[in-house]
């Protein structure tokens, strides 16, 4: 009998999402290229998530729990379990002059940034621009085909998987099962920019919340003059 995923399990899985038969997201680079949505800066291949912990859209998260390892599964999700219904409050009319003041000549279908959020220009008429800040898939029924590739067990293995996902250039943590302490050593050669800080915080949060055996996380960071860091 095939092994099944339980809520809270750390798993790697691959998926392809479609809306009205058109691929909108996938972990498969070949599928992305065929669908014309390939991003050369994107990351492809199975992703790491904790099943049942709301790290993916609701309906897909629910479908992961109980899924059999290595068996492809398809689910059809209504809007409320995918990207939600359209919110009429996110439809706005903005003066054309407000755009031109910033050197933007809005056209229907153009994606613009408003207040730090992306919005789709729906129409331009009578000096006014209608924009929609809803997710482009809001209100749509979507379908996901997915397959769980691996289920990770053991605190040490889970820590290593999480760190590789978030900080791939840092060696696996040292875990002491007697104290529940995980120690991560970061060499001087590792970049410690804002992206590193965000990934570090996410690792700590996920390690403590997803792995019951982990009671504390310690980061030891080495810094050196740039020319001496190796």
Description of the structure:
It is a single chain. A hairpin with a 2-residue loop joins strand 1 and strand 2 (22-26). 21% of the residues lie in helices and 32% in strands. It folds into 3 domains: 1-84 and 137-153, Chitinase A, domain 3, CATH 3.10.50; 88-132, Thrombin, subunit H; 154-230, Alpha-Beta Plaits (2-Layer Sandwich), CATH 3.30.70. The longest helix has 17 residues, at 194-210. It has helices at 29-35, 58-64, 96-100, 155-166, 194-210; strands at 10-19, 22-26, 47-50, 73-77, 91-95, 111-114, 117-125, 128-132, 142-152, 174-176, 181-186, 216-221. 19% of the residues are buried. The strands form 3 sheets. Strands 1, 2, 3, 4 and 9 form a 5-stranded antiparallel beta sheet that branches. Strands 5-8-7-6 form a 4-stranded antiparallel beta sheet.
What is the compact description of this entry?
The chain contains five helices and twelve strands. The chain has helices at residues 29-35, 58-64, 96-100, 155-166, 194-210; strands at residues 10-19, 22-26, 47-50, 73-77, 91-95, 111-114, 117-125, 128-132, 142-152, 174-176, 181-186, 216-221.
């Amino acid at each position: 009998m095939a092994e099944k995923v339980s809520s809270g399990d750390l798993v790697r899985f691959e998926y392809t999402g479609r809306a009205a038969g058109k691929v909108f997201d996938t972990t498969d680079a070949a599928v992305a290229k065929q669908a014309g949505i390939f991003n050369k800066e994107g990351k492809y291949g199975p992703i790491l998530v904790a099943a049942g912990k709301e790290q993916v859209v609701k309906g897909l998260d629910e479908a992961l729990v109980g899924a059999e390892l290595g068996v492809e599964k398809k689910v059809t999700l209504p809007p409320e379990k995918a990207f939600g219904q359209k919110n009429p409050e996110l439809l706005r009319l903005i003066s054309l002059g407000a755009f031109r003041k910033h050197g933007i000549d809005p056209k229907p279908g153009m994606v613009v940034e408003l207040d730090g959020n992306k919005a789709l220009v729906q129409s331009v008429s009578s000096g006014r621009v209608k924009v929609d800040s809803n997710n482009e898939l809001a209100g749509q029924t979507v379908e996901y085909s997915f397959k769980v590739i691996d289920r990770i067990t053991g605190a040490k293995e889970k820590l290593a998987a999480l760190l590789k996902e978030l900080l791939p250039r840092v060696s696996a943590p040292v875990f002491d099962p007697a104290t529940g302490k995980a120690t991560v050593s970061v060499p001087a050669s590792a970049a410690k920019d804002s992206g590193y800080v965000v990934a570090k915080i996410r690792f700590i949060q996920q390690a403590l919340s997803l792995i019951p055996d982990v009671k504390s996380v310690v980061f030891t960071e080495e810094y050196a003059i740039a020319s001496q860091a190796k």
